[in-house]
Write a structure and sequence with these properties.
With 50 residues, the protein is mostly helical. The chain is 54% helix and 0% strand.
Length: 50
């Protein structure tokens, strides 16, 4: 359950890209389940500019 709850911390633009199927190849489930920055600005470098 904690894995799923962590995904709620994703920046809104990342979530929208995933829901529309427009995320880049750098956005993967395995990468999303690993620790990632809580800051939405820092997530841009982690998940690309989505």
């Amino acid at each position: 359950m904690t894995r799923v709850l962590r995904l709620t911390l994703l920046a809104p633009n990342v979530v929208v890209a995933i829901l529309h199927g427009k995320q880049g190849p750098e956005v993967t489930l395995s990468k999303g389940l690993k620790p990632f920055p809580h800051s939405w600005n820092e997530q841009k470098s982690t998940f690309g500019h989505t």
